[in-house]
Amino acid sequence: MLRAARGGAGLLRRGPGAGPGAGLRLAPGPGPAWRPPGRLLQHALPPAAPPAVGRWLLVCSGAVAGAVVLGGVTRLTESGLSMVDWHLVKEMKPPRTQQEWEAEFQKYQQFPEFKILNHDMTLTEFKFIWYMEYSHRMWGRAVGLAYILPAAYFWRRGWLSRPMKGCVLTLCGLVCFQGLLGWYMVKSGLEEKPDSFDIPRVSQYRLAAHLGSALLLYSASLWTGLSLLLPRHQLPETHQLLRLRQFAHGTTALIFLTALSGAFVAGLDAGLVYNSFPKMGERWIPDDLLAFSPMLRNIFENPTTVQFNHRILGIASVTAVTALYLFSRKVPLPRRTRMAVTSLLAVAYMQVSLGISTLLLYVPTPLAATHQSGSLALLSMALWLMNELRRVPK
User: Fold this and answer.
1) How far apart are alpha carbons 183 and 195 in whole angstroms?
2) Is 13 helix (H, G, I), strand (E, B) or coil?
């Protein structure tokens, strides 16, 4: 009788009645149970996130998209300054009695928007804009819970690897930061400006920061969700594929920048200054393009320049998408990737049509909100294509 090894899995014995040439068999012993090598390797590697995590992140990205669209409608209906204070829990209960509504309306009457723009507003009209802003804030809180509660559940169940834990923590931190940034933005529209006779509005810089962080949260959630749910394609790493991947990355960055420039258009009401296309009035380049001094101020504060830049970025984006589509025809791609390229092209031309229509019709609220939603759809298609072209890790 021979022991296999010190502390091994068991004993090596000859079978009963076996001769000297008989084989040895493994007898049970005090050591750990034996596992096949594949099982040992699988046990050593970190567990892959289950599909539920990917689906959760896609739902969260949809919730963020809803918040962006609702925020755009709030801005278009000039409702964003109707709630003049911010409380995380207290404001979740809306006014109910006539006294409570009158007290809320009196608070609003102390701020510049009522004094300059809405001095003849009735209580019924105030209730409409108040509920618009209230809906946006409550949606934002629901988005926060949609991130934080499932994240805690998945973390406790051990479904998140170490890199995924870092990603989830970043997303949860970003959604909390987004709420604080929203109030920081609103505060800029509530400040008294004695030397200004302009319509009270939030700072276009803070509005762009608020929208930019929302787009970043949306993009990160969508990308991570798609990465968890869609398997990578085994694409041959050719020179053409590398160029297509780089082209897709650059186009996505351009689309993101175009969407972000829309925040400056909204913040300055720049969509109302030149309602003609392709010319701006009677000229290709308007006279007041560089009216502000110093010159750099025009890029972010001159409504004419802001609209001009948004036009140029929009045209550049649709041109880049068209070139990307034509170049992709030369590269052999899987069916799903080809579908992503075609969808990107279709949404790009739809978005340009919406933008031009919004401009020519003097920015009607339904059309302008659809145009803003189209920017999210276009960014989504670009992120989907980037995800399809991911490099397979070696």
Assistant:
1) 24
2) strand
